[in-house]
Amino acid sequence: MICVGIARGRHRHVIAEHRFLAENGVKLVELRLDFIQGVVQVKRLLAERPCPVIVTCRRPVDGGHWARSEEERLLVLRTAIAEGAEYVDLEDDIAARVPRYGRTKRIVSRHDFAGTPADLDSLQRKLAALDADVVKIATMAATPQDNLRMLSMVRSAEVPTVGVCMGEIGMPTRVLCGRFGAPFTYATFHEDRLLAPGQIAWRQMRDVYRYDAITAATRIYGVIADPVAHSYSPVVHNAALGEAGIDAVYLPFRVPVEALDEFLLEADRWPLSGLSVTIPHKEAVLRHVTHADADVRAIGAANTLVFTATGIAAHNTDSRAASQSLEATLTMTGHEGLVDVKEVHSALVLGAGGAARAVAHGLKEREINVTVASRTLDRAQKLAGEVGCKAIDWGSRYRMPFDCLVNTTPVGMHPNVDASPYDREHLRPYMVVFDTVYNPENTLLVKEARKAGCRIVTGVDMFVEQAAQQFSIWHGQKAPVDAMRAALKRATASAKTST
User: Fold this and answer.
1) In a domain? residue 276
2) Distance from the CA of 9 to the CA of which of 207, 303, 309, 379 falls in 20 to 30 A?
């Protein structure tokens, strides 16, 4: 069950949001009374409530906004109990001062914004002993292993316990705590009104992660990166899982470089079935794999891991996705008599990172002459030596004609949408322009190339294709590409609208 927090300054807004959430199927809300301006009218908020509530009135030290006296705060909590609230949240240091009364259940909580204590089990037992019906522990995650310790504590607790880690690293616990035995998790009503670091909006929890459908049998997949909050992979893969009816969930795992080895060594404790891999881990993960496909061996990097009984298998879907996206576009335009795949002989790849390496490798496999240009010539030369192509300095990218231009840099990515890595006066109608940026899909480069009469391959094409190939590797069936593409376009359009 998802408990949705409501934090508004006016009573009427709290009541309106409560009604809206109940009408949309939410079965439990948290009323954050510390946000109320002026005198808190507990009876008004609880009268004719459309669904059960947790009444919470949090002090600043616990991440709240209560600005009046402690005695007034305790009076608010006691009043909520007297008015028959289903739950009242009591911090552990005041639990003994607010006695049990009536049918109201007691949530005894502890918040730690500095880190995650070493002995969570002892802390949980201490809180449970304070006459708790439910224990809540929320701590700041410093490493991915903090998440595992938190979920392990939840699973072993004798008294029902909600255990979550805060911050970007801790986000997976918010989605998975129910799988490990928590009676509910917390979400916020608005994405831009977070009540705790790393909290997720209730619509995303319900519609993207399908929290209420997660069980102990649900398989776990995800993407590892640092940072990871910007990734749209969870949107795309969870849409595909829902469309295909597969009992699995796909999560973002923020894994710092120094935590990668331990994270992979403990993969079976989640347990993980598969991972997407992106910056900065594509090369480092290879020291943990027992099998690598031909593309991984050729490129020296992986973007897909499969956890099996005999070890970790590594794949790279980026290079094939890039070349297949390009080929699909050329074949399609070829039907109109504009071009044939074989007419593309040369390509200029802008950038020298992992994406550039994968793209250059994919193009080389199709016998296209590749040249790499980067703002750092040394990086371009290093990549060229690894792939077997040419390298030029950034300022020389306009000096010779190319049939195909591929941008693998982040130039033009949201929010810097007014930038382009290639000046429009150098674009020619015979060129194929491929921009791997997918947010937005129509970058400035794409817009200017379209005006110049170029054929276009967008980052959405490549992103969806590489994700679809990952889906097939993991699940052994054809990916629902249309659902994946639609989900990505909705998400990027929503992000653009909200900023």
Assistant:
1) yes
2) 207
